[in-house]
Amino acid sequence: MIENNIPKVFISYSWESKEHSDWVKSLADKLLADGIEAIIDSYDVSPGDRLPKFMESSIRDSDYVIIISSVVVGFILY
């Protein structure tokens, strides 16, 4: 799936704060600077795009997926 020896990475992250989003953007910028095609919503989604469709196709079309969360995001078990 890696074309032209350039890996494609989709970054999925929680939108809990501007600081967290900025940190994720800086990670994407570092990957891009290192020649890795980093896919992230803030760079690749336009107003009016369907976010679930973007996420599904990004996961399917990427070589790797990075999921970034934090302790603020949790799950409730019943």
Describe the protein's architecture and organization.
Helix 1 links the parallel strand 1 (8-13) and strand 2. It is globular and about 35 Å long. The chain is built from 3 helices and 3 strands. It has 78 residues and is α/β, with parallel strands linked by helices. 40% of the residues lie in helices and 18% in strands. A 3-stranded parallel β-sheet has the order 2-1-3, with helices on both faces.
* SS element count, helices: 3
- Structural classification: alpha/beta
- Counting DSSP E segments of at least 2 residues, the number of strands comes to 3
Q: For the largest beta sheet, what order do the strands appear in spatially?
A: 2-1-3
User: Element order, helices and strands?
Assistant: EHEHHE
Query: Considering DSSP H and I runs of 4 or more, what fraction of the residues is helical?
Result: 25-40%
End-to-end distance: 40 Å
**Unreliable residue stretches:** none
Overall radius of gyration:
14 Å
Beta fraction:
15-25%
What value does the average pLDDT take?
82
| Biggest beta sheet attributes | 3 strands, parallel
Per the principal axes of the C-alpha atoms, what is the gross shape? Answer: globular
Write a brief structural summary:
By secondary structure, this protein is of the alpha/beta class.
Outline the fold blueprint.
Blueprint: E1 8-13, H1 18-33, E2 37-39, H2 41-44, H3 51-61, E3 64-68
Parallel strand pairs: 1-2, 1-3
Notable features of this structure?
78 residues, alpha/beta, 3 helices, 3 strands
